[in-house]
Design goal:
heterodimer, A: 349 residues, alpha+beta, Cytochrome Bc1 Complex, Chain D, domain 2, five-stranded antiparallel β-sheet, two-stranded antiparallel sheet, 32% helix, B: mainly beta, five-stranded mixed β-sheet
């Protein structure tokens, strides 16, 4: 087994020919499931309004005036036939669950959140980390929690625990549980920020020129090399996303936990190169690893599995991203559009 | 038909006379080396060795080891941490919560099952796990998560008695296997993160009456009380006894590790060494009186329990025969003590640590500045989980090598917070977090038992909660968080065999014989996996 080599693997790895793999998508509105590309105007209007309400003009922040003016702008896009998506997942998130409905039952005043944080640190952080980043227990700093699908479920889990797991019940009173739940919900959810770009144009760039779907997926469509981007707007700031586009290797997710029995995307991205005793070397993304074996997805999407004893070399290229930098591909305004599209992705799933 | 009936009657008569009833008197456990086909106590023997004298499976033939059977828990999600007891071909395991099952060692088919309801509001740091049973005579002993000690008929699993050890509502719980001595059942307590006052209890095997209680924190007026300041810190100072200890029948001394003082990360209200936290105590098992103690980490501030299994053996040190007790401690140091007197013999770090520059002549750590938790957080090696933890080490008496699963390159940031006690509530006075980008990993280390000197190590991918077992076949069995169960060459550490069980391994391996054939057993995920050739 060779020494772990931290040298950069040549970036810009994705051959231009593989752009053909990209899903060629056009942007616009579609009524759900209408793949003929002829959505009804009403459906488009409703979705646009919905999207604006939840992502640009939340009721509690901006009143109707703002909503209407933005709606007008958005509807301009609905009328452009060329800008019609055939796949609904490439819309600026329009059919997602409203965030405010989730947090409506939970108080979210600074006082409650601070109390929730204090309780969280003393009761929950042993397993979930002081900021919900995970450890022995799962990461809570994420937009949605698979077992706590709504706030009632979350409070019930805190109170009663999860039978068959390490998650214990608690004797905290309902108000304390409520404040912990409010704090947990505040983790991993970025507030909505107004950004300069045009999300609709950004979606088009994502689909066509950026060929982002070659490596990234949205709602189950796209590649598996890079992290899934569903809900990325809840997790990442506009500044982070812009930097990730221009300088992909700047901050590769590396949230390793020694307590995890599976290592995988998106929390721990690792580019590896494996040289087997027989056969061709494989470069790609670590899918999983244990003491004796490693599974690698190559840039074509194929998963290779090796027992380490079958390898002569295994290089772990920490901090390396195979994503090409997009600073030369897009203008500054186009980058704004792409960022606007990405931050609009605030889906629960 | 008549013939069958006659045979049946004969069998019944023999059974009534006791000829066929399983019976495990103290002498059988004491002399466990004489019956290597059984596994009669938590660590395999009283010395804490977790070493099987069986040698059918060897370094030369282990590659042919394959699954013989798997038992899956009937309750889904009930992850196992138990180390089975094996008596005459029957495995006795614990499932969670508070379930005991007897399994045929050849086929894995259940023989009987005992289930005891558990309240759903038991506080614990780490889940309602159970790590095993004790046997004495014809009785099995289970300590429940909600702090009862229960005696079961070995043949049927029917309950004989059930006594309360502690009130679970005040943060007590039990996860350890009891230890059966000549005429006592000894059980430790968990709750070091909940402001309990730790103790070790002994019960009469026939009746369940409590024979003695040793408080691990002295009360006002008792020696050692002065190490807690003069407030009420002693009443909720922790020092739990949550891993099964060891016993020397010749010296008639019981050795038990104690846990962290509480609140874990904030020592402001407990000035002093905080005896007998983070120590090993040697007790007279007849009376529960303290003979000696050795404190590994005075005034601990990092939750480095010293509950790791004490391992007992005799060896020559500087040309002189010594009766020794060794422990690979959670604080990162390996210790060799004289088990007659508690005198420190030698000690050294066995993983990367940054809190002590070494040990002085009496074994007391020489502290480095900057390792105490603060409000802003300080980075310390090892992290909270420590260099090793509850999972068992192993000791090969022939080669005198000591084997331990250790966590390497493992730091955490320790925070100090205000600690407010409420009964049953968490009482830690701080918190910890991991270090971004740090890939800590476990290793199995082979140390020279008398010196702690490293012979070899085998690296694993991530951290591990799996104990190791040594065998006379020249093998070390271990497991991984990712579900690998494997055998290493005991002299070189080279992996010779592996099997992916599909579930994280948080348990200790054992070995036994049925009909002359050697089996290896490990709990993995929600099942018991048993291997043979």
């Amino acid at each position: 087994m060779g020494e772990v080599n931290k040298n950069l693997f040549p970036v810009g790895l994705i051959p231009r020919s593989s752009l053909s793999l990209a899903v060629k998508l056009r942007l616009g509105c579609s009524s759900g499931g209408n793949t003929a590309g002829q959505p009804s105007h009403d459906g488009c209007y409703a979705k646009a309004e919905n999207w604006i309400r939840w992502h640009w003009c939340p009721d509690q922040i901006i009143p109707n005036l703002c909503r209407r003016s933005l709606l007008f702008v958005a509807l301009l896009g609905c009328g452009v036939p060329a800008a019609r998506a055939q796949e609904s997942h490439l819309q600026p998130a329009s059919d997602q669950r409203p965030l405010s409905a989730i947090s409506a039952q939970l108080p979210n005043t600074p006082g409650v959140l601070a109390a929730g944080q204090r309780l969280f640190v003393s009761h929950c952080s042993f397993c979930h980390g002081p900021n919900g980043e995970g450890g022995k227990g799962p990461t809570l700093a994420q937009p949605s929690l698979p077992r706590a699908t709504d706030d009632e479920a979350l409070q019930k889990i805190i109170k009663s625990g999860l039978p068959g797991t390490e998650m214990p019940s608690s004797r905290l009173d309902p108000e304390q549980i409520k404040s912990i739940a409010a704090f947990v919900r505040s983790l991993g959810r970025r507030p909505i920020e107004v950004v300069p770009g045009d999300a609709t144009r950004g979606a088009q760039l994502y689909a066509a020129r950026g060929a982002c779907a070659t490596c990234h997926s949205l709602q189950g469509h796209g590649g598996a090399i890079g992290p899934d981007l569903g809900g990325i707007g809840l997790r990442r700031s506009p500044a982070f996303l812009r930097r990730a586009l221009v300088e992909p290797g700047a901050e590769v997710p590396r949230e390793f936990s020694a307590w995890r029995s599976d290592v995988s995307l998106p929390r721990n991205f690792l580019f590896v190169r494996a040289v087997p005793k027989q056969g061709e070397p494989v470069a790609g993304v670590r899918v999983n690893e244990d003491t004796f074996s490693i599974q690698v997805r190559d840039l074509g999407g194929r998963v290779h599995s090796f027992f380490k004893a079958e390898l002569t070399e295994l290089h772990k290229d920490w901090g390396v991203s195979p994503m090409p930098p997009y600073g030369g591909t897009f203008t500054a305004a186009e980058l704004d559009d792409l960022v606007a599209f990405l931050v609009s992705l605030r889906g629960e799933k | 038909m008549k013939t069958y009936l006659r045979i049946f009657h004969l069998v019944l008569t023999l059974a009534a006379g006791g000829a066929l009833r399983a019976d495990v008197p103290f002498e059988r456990i004491r002399d466990s080396a004489k019956e290597p086909g059984n596994w009669l106590t938590y660590s395999g023997n009283y010395g804490g060795h977790r070493h099987s004298p069986l040698a059918q499976i060897t370094a030369a033939n282990v590659s042919t080891l394959k699954p013989a059977w798997v038992y899956q828990c009937r309750d889904s999600g009930a992850k196992l941490e138990c180390s089975p007891i094996v008596i005459d071909g029957v495995l006795y395991i614990t499932e969670r919560p508070n379930v005991v099952t007897a399994l045929d060692g050849r086929t894995g088919r259940p023989i009987w099952n005992y289930r005891r309801p558990m309240p759903n509001d038991v506080s614990s740091c780490c889940g309602p796990v159970n790590r095993g049973l004790a046997v004495l005579g014809d009785t099995l002993f289970l300590a429940t998560f909600d702090c009862h000690l229960v005696a079961l008929d070995l043949q049927t699993g029917k309950e004989r008695w059930d006594v309360v050890v502690a009130d679970y509502k005040t943060g007590h719980s039990i996860t350890a296997a009891p230890l059966a001595l000549k005429d006592k059942i000894v059980i430790g307590i968990s709750g070091g993160e909940f402001g309990i006052r730790g103790f070790l209890d002994a019960y009469e095997p026939k009746t369940g009456a409590r024979a003695w209680r040793f408080w691990t924190i002295p009360a006002p007026g008792e020696p050692g009380y002065e190490t807690w300041g003069d407030g009420d810190a002693w009443q909720r100072g922790g020092a739990p006894t949550w891993v099964t200890g060891s016993y020397d029948p010749n010296l008639n001394l019981l050795y038990w590790g104690t846990g962290n003082p509480g609140p874990d990360y904030n020592g402001d209200n407990r000035p002093g060494d905080n005896l007998y936290s983070c120590s090993v105590v040697a007790l007279d098992p007849d009376t529960g009186k303290l003979r000696w103690h050795f404190q590994y980490t005075p005034h601990d501030l990092h939750d480095w329990d010293s509950n790791q299994t004490p391992v007992l053996f005799d060896a020559n040190i500087a040309g002189k025969p010594r009766q020794l007790l060794v422990q690979a401690n959670r604080n990162g140091f390996y210790y060799v003590l004289d088990r007659v007197t508690g005198e420190f013999v030698t000690g050294s770090p066995y993983i990367k640590q940054t809190w002590a520059s070494g040990l002085d002549a009496k074994g007391r750590p020489i502290l480095l500045p900057g390792a105490e938790p603060t409000a802003e957080g300080v980075l310390v090696y090892p992290g909270l989980t420590g260099a090793t933890n509850w999972y068992a080490p192993a000791f090969n008496p022939t080669t005198q090598l000591f084997y331990v699963q250790a966590l390497e390159d493992y730091a955490q940031v320790f925070y100090k917070l205000k600690a407010e006690y409420e009964p049953g509530g968490n009482f830690e006075g701080g918190s910890t977090r991991g270090v971004a980008g740090q890939e800590s990993y476990a290793t199995i280390k082979a140390l020279e038992a008398t010196t702690g000197k490293l012979r070899w190590e085998f690296k694993l991918n991530t951290s591990v909660n799996c104990g190791v077992m040594s065998t006379a076949g020249g093998l070390i069995f271990g497991g991984s968080r990712e579900g690998n169960f494997f055998a290493l060459d005991a002299t070189t550490g080279v992996p010779l065999w592996r099997f992916q069980t599909g579930g994280a391994i948080n348990a200790n391996p054992i070995s036994y014989l049925v009909e002359g054939k050697q089996y290896i057993a490990i709990a993995a995920g929600t099942g018991i996996f048993v291997f043979a050739q």
